[in-house]
Amino acid sequence: AQSVTQLGSHVSVSEGALVLLRCNYSSSVPPYLFWYVQYPNQGLQLLLKYTSAATLVKGINGFEAEFKKSETSFHLTKPSAHMSDAAEYFCAVNDGGATNKLIFGTGTLLAVQP
Amino acid sequence: EAGVVQSPRYKIIEKKQPVAFWCNPISGHNTLYWYLQNLGQGPELLIRYENEEAVDDSQLPKDRFSAERLKGVDSTLKIQPAELGDSAVYLCASSTTQGTEQYFGPGTRLTVT
């Protein structure tokens, strides 16, 4: 069965600092992997996705993620945090099979300090 | 392009009352999903539709929850009767039939008192 683990339910960084949000997945088949962002009282917005085309995936708002099969990881990074990045971030996995179901992690709440 | 539309955005009801949520997916998206998001958790799938057919409803508590997508476009999710533990955000998402990307609406935040 697929699963996603996000290490760190809360992460706090200073404005301008590196953002690193961790995600490890478990999947018996090559997965599709996603990062979504959720701002307060809003739905989920797709940041980026991995679909095996390239291991380094660039997304919106300056975020990127690297797929590492050997580590079963898909960590999200941004070189320089902005105040507007404060939100909750969810990693998700989809095996692309018949169910086409997204399995989400429990989320990481990112705080950006001035 | 219009995104996924959901209404209402917020709903407060007393326990044992019925409640319904409405979703209009992105035009051309045949697949529609309803997710439940509890506070501090990631969304969990309740039901998935391919056109009018519910192809995965294994996580839907059928004793009190029901859903329909009569014409293969809009969908309604109903709870009757609501319980205190149903307080959560109900998210609707849509995708193309073979698409792995799902696009989410803003959600309905339900509070049961």
Query: What fraction of the residues of chain A are assigned to beta strands by DSSP?
Result: over 45%
Percent strand of chain B: over 45%
- Multimerization state: heterodimer
- How many angstroms separate the termini of chain A? 41 Å
Can you tell me the residue ranges of chain B where pLDDT is under 50 for at least 5 consecutive residues?
A: none
- Name the chain pair whose interface involves the most residues: A-B, 25 and 24 residues
Overall pLDDT score of chain A = 91
Helix content of chain A: under 10%
Radius of gyration of chain A: 14 Å
Which of globular, elongated, flat, extended, rod-shaped describes the shape of chain B? globular
Q: How much helix, percentage-wise, in residues of chain B?
A: under 10%
Catalogue the unreliable spans of chain A. none
Give me the count of strands of chain A.
Answer: 12
Biggest sheet character of chain A: 6 strands, mixed
Q: SSE order of chain B, as H and E?
A: EEEEEEEEEEE
Structural class of chain B: mainly beta
What's the total count of β strands of chain B?
Answer: 11
Put the structure in a nutshell.
The complex is a heterodimer of chains A (114) and B (113). By secondary structure, chain A is an all-beta fold.
What does the model show?
The complex is a heterodimer of chains A (114) and B (113). With 114 residues, chain A is mainly beta. Chain A contains no helices and twelve strands. The radius of gyration of chain A is 14 Å and the shape is globular. The model of chain A has no long low-confidence stretch (mean pLDDT 91). Chain B is mainly β and 113 residues long. Helices cover 0% and strands 49% of the residues of chain B. Chain B has no helices and eleven strands. In chain B, strands 2, 4, 5, 6, 9, 10 and 11 form a seven-stranded mixed beta sheet that branches. A four-stranded antiparallel beta sheet of chain B has the order 1-3-8-7, with no helix packed on it. The N and C termini of chain B lie far apart (37 Å). The mean pLDDT of chain B is 94. The chains are: A mainly beta (114), B mainly beta (113).
